[in-house]
Design goal:
There is one protein chain. The protein has 16 helices and 11 strands. The protein has 360 residues and is α+β, with helices and mostly antiparallel strands. The protein folds into 3 domains: 123 residues, Uridine Diphospho-n-acetylenolpyruvylglucosamine Reductase, domain 2 (2-Layer Sandwich), CATH 3.30.43.10; 117 residues, Uridine Diphospho-n-acetylenolpyruvylglucosamine Reductase, domain 3 (2-Layer Sandwich), CATH 3.30.465.10; 77 residues, no CATH class. It has a 5-stranded antiparallel sheet. Strands 1-2-4-3 form a 4-stranded mixed sheet, covered by helices on one side. Strands 7-11 form a two-stranded antiparallel sheet. A hairpin with a 4-residue loop joins strand 5 and strand 6. The longest helix is centred in the N-terminal third of the chain and has 14 residues. The structure holds flavin-adenine dinucleotide (FAD). Flavin-adenine dinucleotide binds next to strand 3, helix 7 and strand 10.
């Protein structure tokens, strides 16, 4: 089950490694562990719902807690300390566009505020209820998570807007296709949320940002249903897709999303190279982009980010490479990281020819 006060599934644990802890302490000092609020204590702080009954609306305190916050740093402080602030008065999890439309009509009739909810990974505070004399209803798209249609001629797939990244790619892979949208929140964020927040993925350099992938869809609004057809780019007037993307749910609830998909690549490999300094790294990356070398992801980390990632995420033997690789380009180095050290002295052309070195 998903954590109620943090990221990911309750069964997954990533204890902080000693090297990582020492590194953080060296940067920001020793710090102190704050007490964690319990779910039982937070439950006590959930006020009575101001909503009347509706068959699709749950007023269960646990549901309201789980939909009250996103995943920004302030959200984490709020959740871990138990100081949530406000909770939605109810949560609905419709299974169809028709149910979403019915909920919107009900909410409009009662003057209820509505918050669309995808994967709840927002870092912008838009899924958190604000103080209001009106009740707040959160509409989660979580139950609308299926591949609904795949047009293999046009390579356009239709998904329920609440489909999270892994489930979306799994359903496409079974048919031999890939969307290729991998924001770092991929595990929990949804295709509807990507469109509503104009998201960008780690492999967008090959597959395109969500602007290029969003082909059309169905939006339920207080004024009725808006269908955006999957026509190609047109010179006739403004593009409704552009007007909807990034609106964070203010224009309506996207219930079905059409996306442009591609055939699964036959082979994919990921490589890492260490550059001797920031300027040469910038030059390498700029030239790779400007000469249109066909990479799907190109990520440049500064020394601090590289060090932090390795110390927090890599195995100890991988992190030890830091000691050899950050010194300088070392063509004569005989250590395990020798090939990586040598990479640092390659030109960008050599870099692309050699196809670099994997961390495995
Ligand atoms: C660890 C982490 C890493 C992240 N990495 C990236 C990244 O690499 N790239 C990036 O762009 N962002 C990133 N984000 C931000 C966030 O994940 C994205 O904004 C994501 O697209 C939100 O999707 P979601 O499904 O979780 O939407 P939610 O958080 O549920 O909602 C986001 C906004 O969209 C609205 N909304 C959601 N679904 C719908 C819908 N179906 N119809 C209408 N409105 C809707 C909500 O009301 C809200 O305003 C990251 C966040 C975290 C916590």
């Amino acid at each position: 089950m998903r954590r109620w006060n943090g990221w990911g599934d309750e069964n997954n644990h990533y204890p902080l490694r000693d090297a990582g802890l020492r590194h953080i302490q060296s940067l920001i000092g020793p710090g102190r562990v704050l007490p964690d609020a319990t779910l039982a204590a937070v439950r006590q702080s959930v006020p009575a719902s101001r909503l009347p009954d509706h068959p699709l609306v749950s007023k269960d305190p646990d549901k309201r807690i789980r939909h009250a916050r996103g995943q920004s740093l302030p959200d984490w402080y709020a959740m871990r300390s138990g100081q949530f602030g406000l909770f939605p008065d109810g949560v609905a999890e419709p299974v169809s566009s028709e149910q979403v439309r019915a909920l919107l009509a009900w909410a409009q009739g009662l003057g209820v505020q509505v918050i669309p909810y995808g994967g709840g990974t927002s870092v912008a505070g838009h899924i958190t209820p604000q103080p209001s004399p009106q009740p707040v209803l959160t509409i989660s798209l979580a139950q609308m998570n299926r591949l609904m249609a795949l047009d293999e001629v046009s390579q356009i797939a239709r998904f329920g807007a609440g489909t999270p990244g892994p489930l979306l790619e799994q359903q496409l892979a079974e048919k031999g296709y890939v969307l290729g949208h991998f924001p770092q929140s991929f595990e929990l964020s949804t295709v509807g949320g990507w469109v509503a927040s104009r998201s960008s993925g780690q492999q967008s350099i090959r597959y395109g940002r969500i602007e290029q992938l969003f082909a059309g869809g169905r939006i339920e609004t207080f004024q009725g249903t808006l269908t955006i057809p999957t026509i190609p780019a047109s010179s006739a007037g403004p593009d409704l897709r552009e007007m909807f993307m990034g609106t964070e749910g203010r224009m309506g609830i996207l219930t079905e999303v059409d996306v442009r998909v591609q055939r699964l690549p036959e082979h994919e490999s990921f490589h890492v190279a260490f550059a001797p300094n920031w300027d040469s790294a910038l030059r390498i990356v700029r030239e790779l982009v400007q000469t249109k070398v066909s990479v799907s992801m190109l990520r440049l980390s500064n020394p601090e980010e590289t060090r932090t990632h390795l110390l927090l995420g890599a195995e100890a033997w991988q992190a030890r490479w830091l000691n050899t690789c950050t010194c300088s380009p070392a063509p004569a180095c005989a250590c395990k990281a020798a090939s990586i050290c040598r990479m640092a002295s390659l030109t960008w052309a050599q870099l692309t020819q050699v196809s670099s070195v994997s961390i495995e």
